[in-house]
Amino acid sequence: MKIFFKRTGGFAAISLSVTLDTDELTAEVSGRLNNLINAVSFFDQPDSLRSSIPGADRFHYEIKAEAEGRIKTIEIDESAVPDIFRPLLDHLIELARMKKK
Amino acid sequence: MDVCFIVPPHMLKEIARRGSAQQKQCAWESLTLSEQMRGQRLSLSVISAIGSTATGTRRRTIYDAGNGYTLPGRLVKSEGSAKSRDKTVNEAYAGAGVTYDLFKKVFGRNSIDDRGMRLDSTVHYGKDYDNAFWNGQQMVYGDGDGELFNRFTIAIDVIGHELTHGVTQYEAGLEYQGQSGALNESMSDVFGSLVKQYRRHQEARDADWIVGKGLFTKNINGRGLRSMKEPGSAYDDPILGRDPQPGHMKDYIKTTEDNGGVHINSGIPNRAFYETAVRLGGHAWVKAGQIWYVALRDRLRPESDFNNAAGLTAAVAGELYGSGSLEEKAVKEGWAEVGIGI
Question: How far apart are CA B175 and CA A18, in angstroms?
Fold first, then answer.
């Protein structure tokens, strides 16, 4: 599975992104990522989770996954992130930070 | 919106996974809304217990999210209570106080809504969360990741910035997109910077005009997040790259990210304010700040752009200090410096 993750916006407006290929990751990292993607039924979700709640300096997330001929991109406003997406987002942010070091 | 609060969250999650397309959408909307409301219900119950009458005095409340994502979190400090052992709590409390004082004592404004609204802040939000934000009701601060960013309460202008988003929401209501969004961001940088200068009793010529000084860890090569004096010069680092802010209309950046570059093109009106303030001299909040505040309160509208802001601030300067006054001239020159003629 290939995954692209990007976080934009925020007070600092410094974007964070990472491209991952589970075939090139350790079994542990790859397994955890697969589990997190499956846990949110990623390929069955809406393309966009938007919010009209007023506010400022919030993040915006884009997650694209490609597996077994299926390609799916989900865009999520931070104020619309459901709880079950948090572990996936936290892990992708962690992987993007590790890449940046 | 059709939402189904009566359905418990675990069932909504199942529907979100297995339902029809319409059911999934409904379930997602309900889940999202219920998660947003969960914290607000607790908050509202506290508000009703304390009362929300306009008092004309500071009413600060600090909550601790415990590195989770539920707002507002656990109440840890209220107005006048003992100093916390947590410096983040004390910073959020003190910063909100100085911001309240600037708006009250200098501009005659009674809190965010001008009706004595309680100033709610949550600290320790999220996991290694490198951000601060205004959620439409309160300020929220992360601890930073410790590698690139320190805690976001470390810089008082960040606190002034977030609180000013509330003022903008209640006044001009600048839409958070494109040029109006960049003006929204710029207003927050302007008054955030004035909060810092006000606390330090600094004159315009002595201020550093850096937004977010102290936010970067020592691993990063930068003075802060943004420079109002020289947009584009705040940081230049192998990990983070270079500060992308333009300081002139000829360098305006067209982008779809960040709501059309609201944190990037804000460098242009930021510099216009700086140029105006240094021309006027003295404490920046006295004249330049007053002109910008009146424009924000009475003149700017949700779809205002940079040209509108330039014309309106010049008009306000003319009304406050006289047509053809030095103040009006300084405002016009400030905008001319960034490529916006009036």
Answer: 30
Is there a contact between B212 and B157 (Cβ–Cβ < 8 Å)?
yes
If contacts are CB pairs under 8 Å, which of residues 146-175 in chain B contact chain A? 147, 149, 152, 158, 161-162, 165, 169
Cα distance between residue B142 and residue B164, in whole Å: 18
Chain A residues whose CB is inside 8 A of the B32 CB are 49, 51, 80-82
φ, ψ at B123 (rounded to 5°): -110, 170
Residue A89's closest CA among A31, A1, A6?
A6
Nearest to B120 by CA among B168, B72, B56: B72
Nearest by CB to residue A100, choosing from B17, B24, B239, is B239
Closest CA to A38 of A79, A101, A87, A90: A87
Q: pLDDT above 70 covers what percent of chain B?
A: 84
Q: What percent of chain A has pLDDT over 90?
A: 92
Q: Please work out, in degrees rounded to the nearest 5, the angle formed at the alpha carbon of residue B190 by the alpha carbons of B186 and B191.
A: 120
Marked catalytic residue, from B91, B263, B275, B328: B263
Q: Is the peptide bond before B238 cis (omega within 30 degrees of 0)?
A: no
> CB within 8 A of B137, min separation 6: which ones?
B40, B43, B120
For chain A, positions 32-91, list CB contacts with chain B under 8 A: 41, 44-46, 49, 51, 53-60, 78-84, 86, 90
Distance CA B73, CA B108 (A): 31
Residue among A17, A53, A57, A93 with most chain B CBs within 10 A, to mutate:
A57
Give the ipTM of the model, two decimals please. Answer: 0.94
Q: What digits encode the pLDDT tens for the residues B273-317?
A: 999 999 999 999 999 999 999 999 999 999 999 999 999 999 999
- Give kind and range of the element (H or E) at residue B55: none
Q: Strand B74-78 and strand B60-64: pairing?
A: antiparallel
The one-letter amino acid code at B300 reads L
> Are the Cβ atoms of A56 and B69 closer than 8 angstroms?
no
Domain that holds residue A91: 2-100
Number of domains in chain A: 1
